[in-house]
Amino acid sequence: MITAERKPLSELVECVRPYGRILLLGCNECVTVCAAGGRKEVGLLASSLKMAFSKDGKNLDIKEITLERQCDPEYVEELAPHMGEAEAVLSMACGCGVQEVARRFMDKPVFPAVNTKFMGASERQGIWSERCAGCGDCVLGITGGICPIARCSKQLMNGPCGGSSGGKCEVDAEMDCAWQLIWDRLKALGLEKRYEENMPAKDWRPGRGAGPRKIIREDLAR
Amino acid sequence: MENFEPVVVAFACHYCAYTAADMAGTKRLSYPPNVKIIRVPCTGKVDMLHIMKAFEKGADGVCVAACLDGDCHFRTGNVRAASHVDAVRKLLDEIGVGGERLEMVALSAGMGERFAQIATEITEKIRKLGPSPVRKVSVAAGAA
Ligand code: FES
Description:
Oligomer: heterodimer
Strand content of chain A: 15-25%
Number of domains of chain A: 2
Low-confidence stretches of chain B: 138-144
Shape of chain A: elongated
Number of strands of chain A: 9
CATH architecture of chain B: 3-Layer(aba) Sandwich
Number of strands of chain B: 4
Strand order of the largest sheet of chain B: 2-1-3-4
Radius of gyration of chain A: 22 Å
Bound molecules: FE2/S2 (inorganic) cluster
Radius of gyration of chain B: 15 Å
Distance between the termini of chain A: 28 Å
CATH class of chain B: Alpha Beta
Helix content of chain B: 40-55%
Number of helices of chain B: 5
CATH topology of the largest domain in chain A: Rossmann fold
């Protein structure tokens, strides 16, 4: 999923200060799962903002709406009847959702309420960690199912580096060394030999090397 | 400020604090009427939003009263409640309302005296802290 974290309240208070009526948006997808911007977080933020302003004698009118998905125009369209009365929009969706709302409603100021972080997996309740960097040319099949691009601090294709000790990374003693994990997994699979093969330099063009990316599925887009 | 009577909302677990409050009543122990009790089936059921709404609607203090460690009838409801309370405290600090206005206590169903004592202590603590900044403004705004 795409993970995110709420921005500090003080930053959000400054964003909405000039306005009296705002639309606070949540998204039912990734940000709900990582507890950053679902219906519940929208409720908590609305309550927090109302209190923060009422403390200073100001009444902030907030309408809360959580869309099924904020990165799809079909769902964003549902906001049309509510846009008229809103002076600004605060969105708790990931960057994709925020931009989709901004694109559809050209004349409304739209502010992000979360910082979008990374594509990750849940380690356990309340802990998420980065797993995929969207490099566009997946190597998991040869690295034992552990991504050296997302999980090695140096994105090494032929690791580990000298900073790996006791299975941990020199960047942070709590951080697993991805190449240690790769080696352990290859060993478990009986594929130690594969480790001996040098991986060629990675072609970064399928990543961000050639500008913003787009997928066009002719059969669906027609 | 002299005649400030704080409003304290207590989310009381049915299996302990609520029964303890009942016992305090049966024993004719008096405790401040400032404490408004909301019975919940377990403190694990108290959502962060419930606590926030209490403050938003004008509570000066909130107390979450749970079963003693290891005594929750739903095993870990009180443990989860404790982490929710911590999170709301931080949020209240961020808002500027003050996390110290929210408290979590643990007691058993037989502790009528303890309940009365807690209710008194919390009311006094909130009285010292003064009215919640949220309520102060909404009351003033309502009067204007
Ligand atoms: S049953 Fe009392 S706190 Fe869970």
